[in-house]
Design goal:
The protein is mainly α. The protein has one domain (11-310): Up-down Bundle (Rhopdopsin 7-helix transmembrane proteins), CATH 1.20.1070.10. The chain has eleven helices and three strands, in the order E-H-H-E-H-H-H-E-H-H-H-H-H-H. It has helices at 21-51, 58-85, 94-127, 132-135, 138-163, 181-185, 193-228, 233-258, 265-289, 292-304, 306-310, and strands at residues 11-14, 91-93, 173-174. Strands 2-1-3 form a three-stranded mixed sheet.
Length: 311
């Protein structure tokens, strides 16, 4: 037996969100609508930023990249969940499970870095407005995006190496609708406590560090505005409130899972619906409805038509 591959589990069974057919059918309809809205809303922002010349600025460049990441994250998780909801046996291959985990952590790592870049962009626009275009040059914006992707891939690989060679030759049921490191480590035929601790420490440190950095940056911006021009404080808060809302929605499930490593499974999987479905569908509305330039672009679209607007 020593020459055989210890990883004999070829597939995992996802237990999903519910065992009731009525509930599963209802959830399939709800998540199908959410997924449609995610694709439509985020791709609309992406193409609007590309085609509208007055939106060719650092802030909208970063927003467009965030929209693209939201589409990728939801397509990795929500699309499979929709297909699985009406299946009696929700199977995912070992390779498929590992691939899903890998892409989830890449996209979440990229999104964290993009949120940091967007916070820096708002700090520069509000506190260094005279030097904004010089600081947030096209080269700087591209560097932010490249750094975000390098960080996301590095973050995913750092987790991946701990899991890929674990011996999976026992139970193969995952009490969730998607794969993730803490769940499959529990299924490995080994003492998974040290691996769970390493994963939780790694992801938890990155999550909490990014979250507090973002909150500190927003507070710093508001304090700076309050000290220099109290009259602009309400305007700055309105601008930042959209960013703060997105940050809270995105980080709450991550903090719950990785910083507190022993959540109840039922609550945990429903919390991650916020990351995979709710936040991506709300992001276009949160950012667009509070942004005058985006609203103007959409009004022009309605009045003149798509092609007439961008000729």
């Amino acid at each position: 037996m020593g020459g055989l591959n210890d990883t004999v589990v070829s597939e995992f069974v996802l237990l999903g969100l519910s065992t009731s057919w009525e509930t599963k059918f209802f959830l399939m309809l709800i998540f199908s609508l959410l997924y449609f809205d995610i694709i439509l809303g985020n791709l609309f922002i992406l193409f609007l930023v590309i085609l509208a010349s007055h939106l060719h600025s650092p802030m909208y460049f970063l927003w467009a990249n965030l929209s693209l990441i939201d589409v990728d994250l939801s397509s990795t998780t929500v699309s499979k969940m929709i297909k699985d909801l009406l299946r009696e046996y929700k199977m995912i291959s070992f390779q498929g499970c590992i691939t899903q985990i890998y892409f989830i952590h890449i996209t979440e790592g990229v999104e964290m870095m993009l949120l940091i870049a967007m916070a820096f962009d708002r700090y520069t626009a509000i506190c260094k407005s005279l030097h904004y275009l010089k600081i947030m040059s096209p080269k700087t914006c591209i560097s932010f995006v490249v750094t975000a992707w390098v960080t996301g891939v590095s973050h995913a690989m750092s987790q991946f190496v701990f899991v890929i060679n674990l011996p999976f030759c026992g139970p193969n049921e995952i009490d969730s609708f998607y794969c993730d490191f803490p769940r499959i480590i529990k299924l490995a035929r080994t003492d998974g406590a040290k691996y769970e601790l390493i994963i939780a420490a790694n992801i938890g440190f990155m999550t909490m560090g990014t979250f507090f950095l973002l909150i500190f940056s927003y507070v710093f911006i508001l304090v700076t505005v309050w000290k220099h021009s109290s009259g602009d404080l309400s305007k700055a808060f309105v601008i930042l409130s959209a960013h703060i809302t997105v940050v809270v929605l995105f980080f709450t499930p991550c903090i719950f899972l990785y910083v507190w490593p022993f959540p109840t499974s039922s609550l945990e999987k429903y919390l991650f619906i916020v990351d995979f479905a709710i936040t991506p569908v709300l992001n276009p509305a949160i950012y667009t409805l509070r942004n005058e330039d985006m609203m103007i672009a959409m009004k022009r679209l309605r009045k003149k038509g798509w092609f007439a607007q961008f000729r």
